[in-house]
Amino acid sequence: MADDLEPDGPYKVIVIGDGAVGKTSIISRYALGTFDEGYKKTLGVDFALKLVERKGKQDVYLQLWDIAGQDQFSSLTRVYFRHASACVTVFDLTARQTFENVKKWMDEVEAKVNTSETGPVPAILLANKCDLKPHEVSDAEIEEMKERYNFVAWFKTSAKDNTNIDKAMATLVDHIKPTE
Ligand code: GDP
């Protein structure tokens, strides 16, 4: 089996979406196993390295890139998007505008990541903060967004309660690195 191979990668995974939707919290939950209630606005880019162990398949390193959504960092965005192998797009299920802005983020991916050499990279859509109520976006609307932008899948997640984060990321990894 592929179990005894060195880990593959690292693959660059960009985590995008509006400010305060939970990008940093998702990365921190996934890569470090922690959650922080306090909100620290991300300044520039942070990285986290995650070893994904996969039963019966080659392990994979992911390099998770976190960025501020703020426009004043736009000089960084080219570096941020460059050579990404996959994309995690996050919105806040309790803040409708962050869902509307998924379109804007995916247009950026379309323009800056999905070049003619690479073709489209796999992307997943995360409806985060599902532990909070009320939810301002319906499942049908999320499904429609998934179809429109060719997301490989969408998940309701909570970085706070650790809901669906590992499952969502495992789905993404399987699309970056299909089983040989
Ligand atoms: P970012 O700007 O997109 O990186 O957002 P952060 O990760 O900094 O999160 C913004 C705020 O939302 C912080 O106060 C987090 O503690 C909180 N938060 C993030 N994810 C969740 C979640 O799943 N549930 C709840 N209740 N709060 C969350």
TrEMBL record:
Species per Swiss-Prot/TrEMBL record: Salpingoeca rosetta (strain ATCC 50818 / BSB-021)
Protein name: Ras-related protein Rab
NCBIfam families: small_GTP
The family this protein is said to belong to: Belongs to the small GTPase superfamily. Rab family.
Matching PANTHER family: RAB FAMILY, RAS-RELATED PROTEIN RAB-7L1-LIKE ISOFORM X1
Biological processes per GO annotation: endosome to lysosome transport; phagosome-lysosome fusion
One cellular-component annotation, GO: late endosome
Key words, A-Z: GTP-binding, Nucleotide-binding
Superkingdom of the source species: Eukaryota
Keyword Transmembrane helix (UniProt): no
GO molecular function, one term: GTP binding
InterPro entries reported for this sequence: P-loop_NTPase, Small_GTP-bd, Small_GTPase
One Pfam family it belongs to: Ras
